[in-house]
Amino acid sequence: MEFFCVKHKAKVEIPDDQVKVEVKKGRKFYTATCPVCGTKVYRIGGRA
Ligand SMILES: [Zn+2]
User: Fold this and answer.
1) Rounded distance from Cα 44 to ligand 1 centre (Å)
2) What was the pLDDT predicted at 10?
3) Less Cβ crowding at N or C end of the chain, within 10 Å?
4) What is the pTM of this model?
5) If you measure from the C-alpha of residue 10 to the centroid of ligand 1, how many angstroms do you get, rounded to a whole number?
6) What is the DSSP string of the chain?
7) How many angstroms separate the alpha carbon of residue 8 from the centre of ligand 1?
8) End-to-end CA distance of the chain
9) Cα(2)–Cα(41) distance, integer angstroms
10) 1-40 pLDDT, tens digit each
11) Dihedral sign, Cα of residue 33, residue 39, residue 40, residue 41
12) Dist. CA 9 → ligand 1 center (Å)
């Protein structure tokens, strides 16, 4: 899954098995750790 890292300002490709799904207030977020700089990256996944 593709994420955008705001820390080093580039797209990063993260394997699906390293992506976590979180649900907050009815919205789904995908979270993962950037393999380049270790920052947490987010992606909005639409409605839960
Ligand atoms: Zn990064």
Assistant:
1) 17
2) 97
3) C
4) 0.81
5) 7
6) -EEEETTTTEEEE--GGG-EEEEETTEEEEEEE-TTT--EEEEEEEE-
7) 5
8) 18
9) 10
10) 999 999 999 999 999 999 999 998 899 999 999 999 999 9
11) negative
12) 7
- What total number of domains does the chain contain? 1
pLDDT score for 38:
97
Ligand 1 centre from 3 Cα, in Å? 9
Question: How far from 32 is each of 11, 17, 18, 36, CA to CA, in Å?
Answer: 13, 10, 6, 12
Amino acid in position 48? A
Instruction: Answer yes or no: is pLDDT of 48 > 80.
Output: no
pLDDT at 14: 97
